[in-house]
Design brief:
Layout (H helix, E strand, L loop, with lengths): L13 H5 L33 H6 L3 E2 L15 E2 L7 E9 L3 E10 L11 E7 L5 E8 L32 E6 L4 E6 L9 E2 L5 E3 L4 E6 L5 E6 L16 E3 L15 E9 L5 E6 L5 E5 L3 E6 L4 E6 L4 H12 L12 E3 L7 H13 L6 E4 L19 H13 L3 E6 L3 E2 L5 H9 L13 E3 L2 E4 L6 H17 L5 E3 L13 E2 L28 E2 L2 H4 L4 H7 L30 H4 L3 H17 L5 E3 L2 E2 L7 E3 L7 H15 L6 E2 L1 E2 L8 H11 L5 E3 L14 H16 L1 H14 L4 E2 L1 H4 L13 E3 L2 E4 L8 E6 L2 E5 L5 E4 L3 E6 L6 E5 L2 E5 L6 H5 L3 E6 L7 H4 L13 E9 L5 E3 L3 E3 L14 E5 L16 E2 L2 E9 L15 E10 L6 E9 L17 E7 L15 E5 L9 E9 L7
Parallel strand pairs: 14-29, 19-20, 19-33, 20-21, 21-25, 25-28, 28-30, 30-31, 32-33, 43-52, 44-47
Antiparallel strand pairs: 1-2, 3-4, 4-5, 5-6, 6-18, 7-8, 8-9, 10-11, 11-17, 12-14, 13-16, 14-15, 15-18, 16-17, 22-24, 23-24, 26-27, 34-35, 35-36, 36-41, 37-40, 38-39, 38-41, 42-43, 44-54, 45-47, 46-53, 48-49, 49-50, 50-51, 51-54, 52-53
Helix pairs in contact: 6-7, 7-11, 13-14
């Protein structure tokens, strides 16, 4: 079969290989036989100290690369020939209910050092969805490990994904060649387009412990994803060829360019014209992904090829397709969107209460108080320190928080202390709830409490056990959410089998690690691990799980078992940790989410460090142990944005930095930016100087200003999370996500959209000004009402002194705002302000020339009416409204002409189907938005007819008189299921409407940069089945009364 048109082909002809042609991609490489690629995979062929001559004498490739640079540390300089191609032939094919499947037979093999090729494979193509192509390749005869569908309960694994198009109108063309087998995916109906995914002429290998599949990529596109890494090169993936390792590891996020706490094998590609697609490789094994100028290379150490091609074609549609597979992000409880305070090192409950009181005294919003491991008894999970955090004191403290409408979140680590008599230990042993080592005994590791076992969250017994422990803990202290940390899993020891130390330890290990100083227990391994006698018991296959033929660059050169559960450990169902390791944090989050639903009966809040695909459906995430440096401030933004692009929108970094002492300037700048993370928490480490926001007045000022703006935006933020829950859209979005057709946005990662609001912070020490890019449109500063007109996208210098951050809303949108308060509960009950931002004003051509020279008389030309409609009621209700010029207090109307009238629904029209937001054309402007509201904690996302309100505004110029007629319409949205039944929602009143960018005439003597119409005193009550409408007229002879 002919491969799809437009495919970039890189195929090294077999005959040239047989002739022994030597080829290398780097000038520094000396090759002896076969083909070599400096892009890898590089399997070490040498030894420490080998030189070029010794390498070539062994028949291997020599490429020292850039010696001494961080980007190439731990890469082999002498490596096996690595660019031959294993070939398979497609022998047979047959149609299936969802597409087709075929048999692949191995023809040629290569790189025997990685093991023999599997001789027979099966390939399946699921073409049943129009915008998602699913291809799997696995061993024909032996079942191989794959990611358990049970970890994605809300995804298309459990319920079929519904495409936006009918299958017969597929967005892709799939073509394949039989000998050698390859396939290509192109966008349907697009001529001469580069393939979206093409294996033609690319390396393809399928061995027991090494799978490689490569695809050509568009040379000029921008690629994103492959989290979680602290990327020194920015959000956009670098094409230097250095592979990114994916193996969850407890590495400080302050360390750039190495594998961290999460693995998300997903790439989102944005081409210069803005068209976008995604490649999801659903595989949990250790892997590396290499990106060069023209190739995307997946190198996996096990599992199967399980690739999903997501056709987009917009970034938002790609995320919608991704989260249909891995699960839509959870809607968090409303309170969790407030500001959080934590520190490792709060010594007693009185210090917690003091911190809460000081935030209130400083007039800085604080929603949630956290406790790190300090509160535990000997660092045992589910316990309270009887002296400093006693049961009575903690219960009283939590009760006081709740009475102040605040919340408490404690930390819980997965490691259960080995300590007979400790209920969590005894019950775990009895229930067989722990992971076992390869000898069949509970795996022994070491974390903060000392010797520990680890719950098996892939087993029913482990999940049940965990839920029971959380239930007992909640009865001890009524926590509101949970922080699950150290769940990569982190282990202070490295070993497949560990034993209690032979000296200095009591049999129950209850005290041998705990010190008398407040600094806590040591994190140096004190277990005895991997003795020669233990390692001799490993089978040859277990040896390969411990040290596989292909070593990814884990933690800069460590074995896979480094500081985690040994890879030969087993779960209750026989699954190897070698395969399931990357799922440990996700499986704990799934178990915790299920338990909290049952315990509290409310929407859970969980914060996890370790993550995998699907984590966003059950948990929030923070970026781990960063540092108090300016580099970490900048990196925090790229990681926050990156995690949103892999389906984890509720994410943020430790504000002001975790490790080290922050500075006043850094902390002030960090809170100005961090207040606009989706998850906003101040947290730092044991022994570091205090960094609560009230510690410096300049930081307190910055915190008040930024956090109170966050709280004003709370209804918009909550609505953005609802959109994420329904469509998978990130909450913190790169500019290109909303403006993909503007190539200038593709490289920007120091600004972001907070929902629809553009955030531009200062990120460099000593700076008070910076350049910010504004895509095409009109932008309104939410702090001072100034505007930026970007008729085309442009960079603008912003003046941002200490405590200030750029926050702009785009013309064409309507934002719901509420009054800032110290807690979200008080924000939630305050009146709504609807902020209507009109796009560029463009008068009708015939009127544009005369619009600056109006006639003048004493009659006001402005009229405003507010009304509400209900289908079954024609009762009139009078209301008072007042129109003023902002900043002047001068009335435009001395007598209100505003009325609220109950009318038939057809009398007050909303937007017609197909009407667009942000229209700016001669004589017409539009803006729109929507609001989601519920009680803030209900388990199920609201589906009633009064949970979502649509807002639509339109301003039209009369062709004869030149008058501008405007209308704002707010109505409840029909749900996806067509449900118009009213729920029990109690909406806040619409208190005021502000229309920015209205065409007030110059004779009114208002600065055109601040032209806006303000209508106060409405106090309109939103009720299910009703609509609110306001109309106004602005004539050319408008004047002050």
């Amino acid at each position: 079969m002919v491969v799809g048109r437009g495919v970039r082909v890189q195929y090294f002809v077999k005959s040239l290989m047989l002739l022994g042609m030597l080829l290398c991609f780097a000038s520094s490489a000396i090759l002896t036989e076969g083909l070599c690629s400096t892009a890898g995979p590089k399997v070490d062929c040498g030894f420490v100290g080998i030189d070029e001559a010794g390498c070539t004498d062994k028949g291997c490739c020599w490429s020292p690369g850039q010696a001494g640079t961080a980007a190439h540390q731990n890469e082999a300089w002498c490596f096996y020939s690595n660019d031959d191609i294993s070939e398979y032939e497609l022998v047979t094919t047959k149609d299936t209910d969802v597409g087709w499947e075929g048999l692949l037979r191995n023809l040629t093999s290569t790189q025997s050092e990685l093991g023999p090729d599997i001789t027979s494979l099966t390939v399946k193509a699921d073409t049943s969805q129009s915008d998602i192509l699913h291809i799997t390749i696995t061993d024909l005869h032996d079942e191989r490990w794959h990611v358990p569908p049970s970890l994605f309960p809300e995804s298309s694994f459990a319920a079929g994904y519904v495409s936006q198009k009918k299958p017969e109108a597929a967005a892709y063309d799939l073509s394949y060649a039989s000998t050698p087998f390859s396939f290509a995916v192109t966008r349907a109906g697009v001529e001469n387009d580069t393939a979206i995914f093409s294996t033609t002429g690319q390396r393809f290998m399928f061995k027991e412990q090494y799978i490689e599949v490569n695809s050509a990529i568009e040379a000029n596109s921008s690629l994103f994803g492959l989290e979680e890494h602290t990327a020194s090169g920015g959000l956009r993936l670098q094409r230097a060829g250095r592979p990114l390792a994916m193996w969850n590891h407890d590495t400080l996020s302050a360390n750039a360019d190495t594998n961290l706490y999460g693995s998300h094998p997903f790439v989102l590609e944005v081409r210069p014209d803005g068209s976008s697609h995604g490649i999801l490789m659903l595989n949990s094994n250790a892997m590396e992904v290499g990106v060069t100028e023209d190739t995307l290379s997946w190198r996996m150490t096990g599992g199967v090829i399980d690739v999903h091609v997501l056709m987009g074609p917009t970034p938002s549609q790609v995320l919608q397709q991704l989260t249909a597979i891995i699960g839509r992000p959870a809607l968090p409880p409303l309170w969790s969107l407030g500001f959080h305070q934590c520190k490792w090192g709060y010594k007693h409950v009185e210090e917690l209460a003091d911190v809460v009181a000081k935030y209130k005294a400083a007039d800085i919003p604080l929603e949630v108080m956290w406790t790190d491991i300090d509160y535990m008894d000997g660092y045992r999970d589910f316990s309270l320190d009887p002296n400093n955090f006693s049961k009575d004191k903690m219960q009283a403290f939590v009760k006081q928080l709740h009475s102040s409408k605040q919340y408490w979140v404690p930390i819980v680590d997965p490691g259960i202390k080995v300590d007979p008599g400790y209920p969590a230990y005894d019950q775990g042993l009895a229930a067989k709830a722990f992971i076992n080592d390869f000898t069949g005994k509970p795996y022994l590791g070491q974390v903060w409490p000392g010797a520990t076992h680890f719950p098996d969250f892939l087993s029913k017994a482990g999940v049940k056990y965990w839920g029971e422990q959380l239930q007992a803990f909640h009865q001890l202290a009524a926590f509101d959410g949970l922080w699950i940390d150290m769940n990569e899993a982190s282990n202070f020891c490295t070993g497949d089998v560990c034993h209690m130390p032979t000296q200095g330890a009591t049999p129950n290990a209850s005290a041998w690690l705990t010190t008398t100083s407040y600094t806590g227990s040591s994190n140096a391994c004190q277990l005895t691990c991997d003795t020669p006698e233990d390692l001799a018991k490993l089978t040859p296959q277990q040896q390969l799980y411990r040290d596989p033929p292909y070593r990814i660059n884990n933690a800069n050169g460590q074995l896979l078992g480094h500081n985690t559960i040994g890879t030969t450990a087993t779960h209750a169902d026989g699954s190897l940790e070698y395969n399931a390791h990357n799922l440990y944090g996700l499986s704990e989050a799934v178990a915790t989410h299920s338990a909290l639903e049952k315990i509290t009966g409310k929407r859970p809040f969980i914060l996890t460090r370790s993550s995998f695909l699907g984590t966003g459906a059950v948990s929030a995430h923070w970026t781990g142990d960063n540092a108090a440096t300016w580099a970490d401030l900048r990196w925090s933004i790229t990681t926050t944005l990156g995690m949103g692009l892999v389906g984890v929108p509720f994410v943020g970094a430790d504000i002001c930095g975790f490790s080290g002492d922050t500075t006043e300037e850094l902390c002030a700048r960090w809170i100005s930016a961090g207040a606009f993370y989706p998850f906003a928490r101040d947290h730092n480490t044991l022994g570091a100087a205090p960094q609560e926001l009230y510690e410096w007045e300049s930081v307190a000022d910055a915190g008040r200003r930024a956090i109170k703006m966050r709280y004003q935006l709370l209804p918009h933020l909550y609505t953005a999370f609802h959109q994420a829950n329904k469509q998978g859209t990130p909450v913190a979005r790169p500019l290109w996500f909303a403006y993909p057709q503007d190539p200038a946005t593709h490289a920007i990662d120091d600004q972001w959209l907070f929902g629809d609001v553009l955030v531009t912070p200062i990120l460099d020490e000593g700076q008070t000004k910076r350049e910010g890019y504004f895509p095409k449109g009109k932008w309104y500063n939410l702090f001072d009402n100034t505007t930026i007109d970007a008729h085309e996208g442009k960079s603008v210098t912003l003046d941002l002194p200490m405590g200030h951050v750029g926050v702009h809303m785009p013309g064409g949108t309507i934002l719901p705002l509420q009054q800032a308060a110290l807690v979200t509960a008080d924000v939630r009950t305050s009146a709504l302000t609807l902020l209507v931002a009109l796009p560029h004003l463009e008068p009708l051509p015939a009127l544009a020339a005369t619009s600056e020279t109006p006639s003048y008389n004493q009659q006001t030309g402005l009229r405003a009416d507010s009304s509400m409609s209900q289908q079954s009621n024609a009762e009139e209700v009078s209301k008072q409204a007042q129109l003023t010029l902002p900043g002047t207090g001068r009335k435009l109307l001395t007598k209100s002409d505003s009325q609220a009238v109950m009318r038939q629904g057809r009398d007050v029209e909303g937007p017609s189907p197909g009407q667009k937001c942000g229209v700016s054309e001669a004589g017409r402007m539009t803006a729109c938005g929507h609001i989601y509201m519920d009680d803030g904690h209900q388990l199920q996302v609201g589906q009633a007819g009064d949970n979502v309100a649509d807002m639509y505004a339109e301003v039209v110029q009369d062709a004869v008189s030149g008058s501008w007629h405007g209308r704002l319409h707010v109505s409840f949205q029909q749900t996806d299921a067509g449900n118009n039944d009213c729920g029990s929602m109690s909406w806040p009143h619409i208190g005021s409407v502000v229309v920015k960018g209205v065409p007030l005439h110059a004779r009114v003597m208002v600065d055109r940069q601040q032209d806006q119409l303000v209508v106060n005193g409405l106090q309109h009550e939103m009720q299910c089945g009703q609509a609110f409408a306001m109309t106004w007229t602005l004539t050319d002879n408008t004047a002050l009364v």
